[in-house]
Amino acid sequence: MSHYAPLIAALITMLVITIIVFSKAGKKIQDIPNERSLHEEPIPRIGGVGLMAGLLSAWALMVMSLAWWVVLPMILLFAVSLLDDVRGLPVRQRLLAHIAAAAILVFGSGLLAQGVALALLVLLCVVWMTNLFNFMDGSDGLAGGMTFFGFTMYGVAALMHGADTQAMLNFSIGAAGLGLLYYNFYPAQVFMGDAGSIPLGFLSAAMGLWGWQLGLWPGWFPLLVFSPFIIDASVTLLKRMLRREKISQAHREHYYQRLVQIGWGHRNVALVEYILMFAVGASAIWCLRQSTEWPWLLFLIWGGVYAGLMLILDNRWKAFQRSQRG
Question: Read out DSSP for 137-173?
Fold first, then answer.
C-alpha cells in the first residue's frame, strides 16, 4: 500500500485545496500585499492545510515506520503556523515554537549522545531551514517546486539503498508539493502560507537528518540538494546583517525576488529555478555513487556557479535601479 502513498498525497492535496479555494475560509484568510510581496492582489494563503492533509493521509499508510520525533514537531509547527496565518503571532512566539520543534528533533533522534556541540549545530541548522522555506516562498510556484525536486531526490537516494519505505515517505512530501503546484504555479490561485512553508522547511532538515542517521546519504547531501534555497536565503540574510538592517523586516531583496522585479516574471523565474533545482539534485545523486573526493569538487563547482550567477544578477540589479532613477 505504501507505493500508493505519493499518489494519495498529490490527490488529497489537490482536493482539499480545491475545497478551500472556493470556501469562506479561502476568502477570509488571504495574503495581503506588503513590502515583501511580488503580487498586487490578495491571494488565499491557506494552501498549507491542503498540503499537510495530503502528506498526513499518505503517511498514515506507513504509520508504523514513522519517527515520532519527526511527526510530533512537524504537527506542532503546522498548528502554530496556521494560527499565525489566521490571527498573526509575534515573531518571538513563532521563533520559540521553531526552537522547541528543533529541540524535540535533536532530543528524539539521539544526537545528544554524539556530543553537545553537534547537537547544538544541528539545532541551529534546523531552525534556519525551518525559516528558510518561508523566506523563499514569495514567488508563484517556487517553494512548491523546491518541495517536489528536493524531497524527490531524497526518495531516489533512499531507493538506491533499498530503503523503500523511507523513499515513499519522501516521495509523498514531494508529491504533496506537486499537488499544491496545480494551484500555486503562475498565476497562483493559492499560497501555502506559513502553515505549509514552515513545516516543509523543518522536514527538509528532519528528513535529511533521519536519512543520514540511517546511512542513506552523507551529511553533505541534504545541503547540496536544497542549496538553491539555502544559498539565496543565507547570502541575502548575511548582506542585510552587514548593512545592519532589521532581519525580521519584510523585504524584496532575495535574488529570486529581484529577478521578478527586473522583468523575468513569476513563470520564468520558477522555470529557471526548476532547472537549477534538478541539476543540483541530479549531480548530488550522481555524486553518491562516486569516490569520496567528488563531493568537495562538486561543492567547489556549484559554489562557483552560484557566485557567478549572484555577481551577474547584482550587476543587473544595479543597472535596473539606475534606469528606474533615470
Answer: --STTHHHHHHHHHHHHHHHHHHHTT-HHHHHHHHHH
Written as nine digits, the cell of 245 is: 538592517
What's the burial of 211, exposed, middle or buried (CB within 10 Å: 0-12/13-18/19+)? buried
Looking from the CA of 214 toward its CB, the CA atoms found within 13 Å total 21
Q: Which amino acid is at 238?
A: L
Instruction: Label residue 308 exposed, middle or buried (CB < 10 Å: 0-12, 13-18, 19+).
Output: exposed
Q: How far apart are CA 32 and CA 42, in angstroms?
A: 5
**What are 10-66's pLDDT values in tens digits?**
999 999 999 988 887 777 788 777 767 788 788 889 899 999 999 999 999 999 999
Listed as own residue / partner, the contacts of 115-123 with beta carbons closer than 8 Å and 24 or more positions apart are: 122/209, 123/99
**What sections of the chain are H helices per DSSP?**
5-21, 24-28, 47-59, 68-86, 91-108, 116-136, 142-160, 164-184, 194-213, 220-225, 227-242, 255-259, 265-288, 294-325
So what's the pLDDT on residue 293? 62
Task: Report the alpha-carbon distance of residue 212 to residue 272 in Å, rounded.
Answer: 29
In this prediction, the residues of the chain whose per-residue pLDDT falls under 50 are: none
Residues 6+ apart with CB under 8 A from 224: 280, 283, 284, 287, 295, 298, 299, 302
pLDDT at 132: 93
CA 108, CA 58: separation in Å to the nearest integer? 23
